[in-house]
Amino acid sequence: MPIFTHFFFNFYFLDAGAQGVGINYGLLGNNLPPPDTVIRLLNSKNIKTVRIFEPDPNVLRALGNSGIEVVLGTLNEDLQQLAENPAFATQWVNTNVIPYVPAVKIRYISAGNEVILGPLAQFVAGAIQNLDIALKASNVSVPVSTAIQFDAIGQSFPPSSGAFKNDAVGAITPVVAFLVSKQYPILANVYPYFAYASDTVNIRLDYALGTASGPVVTDGPLLYSNLFDAMVDALYAALEKVGGPALRIVVSETGWPSAGNGDVAVVPNAQVYVNNVLAHVKSAVGTPRRPGIPIETHIFALFNENLKPAGVEQNFGLYYPNMTEVYAVTF
Ligand SMILES: *[C@@H]1O[C@H](CO)[C@@H](O)[C@H](O)[C@H]1NC(C)=O
Ligand SMILES: *[C@@H]1O[C@H](CO)[C@@H](O)[C@H](O)[C@H]1NC(C)=O
């Protein structure tokens, strides 16, 4: 992260989610508790930021005056209209933002989730810009960004060689230029779990879980003892190559499934990973490439969601839908 000024950094990091950590609150379950119950659960656990994937009116109402900030996503299906039709962006803001502010504190708006690489990628930059214009027109001051998937990165090892895939460069470049010009962060979903699960031969489990006792990867002068830092630094390196050396990264998702993949996706691994990554980012040590720059991080996810694809995707929750803990986590 960046050149942007310390003022900017302090404003967005310290001002929000007290400790710079939050949780993803997905709604793809037919057995989830009502939003007001969920908000009480979040407050009881000292979780001060949630990310939602669509502007659900019931969730937004429940967040009002709750003391919990929200990272508010647009549906991916809305990106094309948001990009092509400024009136649609104005309507989106009038429907999904204006009725709720200032009782709801919106930390960022994310134009889509994980669409860079894919047919909707071309609409992200335009959607961000039209939303930004619409928010400004209503005097609402909220950074607009998008959440990128790590799959958009082609090369990630060693971290300093990090680069976007050729297919992603065309879409990410104007997004980065706009975010840099506004000093808004980029959101990124970073899963050491998926990296490990795809290559258990070459990647050490303790490195993926964040429990290695010393450096595992040496990259020039930089030493890596955990895969999370290595992945974030590969993103920083990739962003540097598309005009974003000053861009701040917010990790919009990270987590580890507790079931659905043999002895890799098990409760002890999930519990160790999530607690380690929280402790790591709360210590605000940054990464080897950006020492001392805290990484605001949002855990995925609050609940196991039974309407997601079977397997690990249904098992990222820290809680069962009945609000019993899958495993204990300290926020
Ligand atoms: C936004 O603020 C400006 C300057 O204070 C004011 O003139 C304008 O009416 C405001 N617009 C809205 C939509 O509140
Ligand atoms: C909550 O759900 C989990 C998973 O189905 C189950 O194991 C647990 O017993 C339930 N807890 C309560 C209090 O019902």
From TrEMBL:
<keyword id="KW-0326">Glycosidase</keyword>
<protein>
    <recommendedName>
        <fullName>glucan endo-1,3-beta-D-glucosidase</fullName>
        <ecNumber>3.2.1.39</ecNumber>
    </recommendedName>
</protein>
<dbReference type="InterPro" id="IPR000490">
    <property type="entry name" value="Glyco_hydro_17"/>
</dbReference>
<feature type="signal peptide">
    <location>
        <begin position="1"/>
        <end position="20"/>
    </location>
</feature>
<dbReference type="InterPro" id="IPR044965">
    <property type="entry name" value="Glyco_hydro_17_plant"/>
</dbReference>
<dbReference type="Pfam" id="PF00332">
    <property type="entry name" value="Glyco_hydro_17"/>
</dbReference>
<comment type="similarity">
    <text>Belongs to the glycosyl hydrolase 17 family.</text>
</comment>
<keyword id="KW-0732">Signal</keyword>
<keyword id="KW-0378">Hydrolase</keyword>
<dbReference type="InterPro" id="IPR017853">
    <property type="entry name" value="GH"/>
</dbReference>
